[in-house]
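Researcher: Quick test of sequence recovery. Tokens follow.
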């Protein structure tokens, strides 16, 4: 199941994210607005370093990029994901969910994996293990990339 947008249709996604940053005590600056808009414009996953490279020619400081990404992740508007042995990020709606990551085009699809989480909780209970946190990501090829490859289906 794909999650629905948590913010109002009247407020742009970038505006909504900037509102959340203001609620966290960060003042509105032109550089921060540029960072947020660049993040929102990403179709899929991105790295902070890639964002720095993209925005430095526009006068955006490295520290502004990293601080903005850090706060957006802390408040749940970005999720950290794993991309080719490095950390990447994807824009998220607020609330708990997981991701399907396309290894070819980088698209990130949020999904509700609550059935999987129920099974994990049962297993942990049976093993008398207390789970405090978890990461659950699925990597593979999206439907469009499968079609380009001539590969379809969900076989591992």
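Model:
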């Amino acid at each position: 199941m794909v999650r629905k947008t948590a913010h109002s249709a009247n407020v742009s996604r970038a505006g909504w994210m900037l509102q959340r940053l203001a609620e966290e005590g960060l003042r509105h600056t032109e550089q921060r607005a540029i960072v947020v808009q660049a993040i929102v414009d990403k179709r899929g996953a991105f790295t902070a370093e890639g964002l720095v490279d993209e925005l430095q020619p526009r006068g955006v400081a490295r520290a502004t990029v990293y601080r903005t990404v850090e706060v957006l992740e802390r408040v749940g508007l970005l999720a950290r994901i794993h991309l080719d042995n490095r950390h990447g990020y994807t824009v998220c709606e607020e609330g708990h969910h997981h991701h399907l990551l396309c290894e070819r085009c980088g698209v990130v699809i949020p999904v509700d994996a609550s059935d999987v989480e129920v099974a994990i909780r049962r297993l942990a209970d049976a093993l008398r293990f207390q789970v405090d946190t978890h990461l659950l990501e699925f990597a593979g090829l999206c439907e469009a990339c499968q079609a380009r490859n001539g590969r379809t289906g969900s076989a591992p």
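The chain has one domain: 13-149.
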